[in-house]
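Researcher: Next sequence.
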Amino acid sequence: MISKWLNAGVLEQGGLTYPEAGTPQGGSISPLLSNIYLHYVLDQWFAQEVKPRLRGSAFIVRFADDAVMGFAVQEDAEKVFRVLPKRFGKYALTIHPDKTRLVAFGRPSGTQGKRPGTFDFLGFTHY
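Model: Next structure:
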């Protein structure tokens, strides 16, 4: 059944196309397979390998193939930011360069006078 989903064509602008690799973008199987695959690639790795090595606290929130990670210590965030593409590459995945970035996030008084950053996640802009 999964093979049929992966090889099913996608109807776009009146034309039928067949993906060469991966799940069809927008296909009904895509979120399901993302959740299964990223549970091992990202969630378990973050809990078992990353968090024990950090200086401060951290969390991850993930929905299908979108994720937000929060870190109490900037150096921890920078370290994970550097190793994340290597982790994904090990499983033939890539990080979207326009969507993946470090954002200073917190109360305005806690950012040494700098305005905290914003980011969009699950249809909401977070301030």
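Model: The CA atoms of residues 77 and 102 lie 7 Å apart. The first strand starts at residue 10 and ends at 12.
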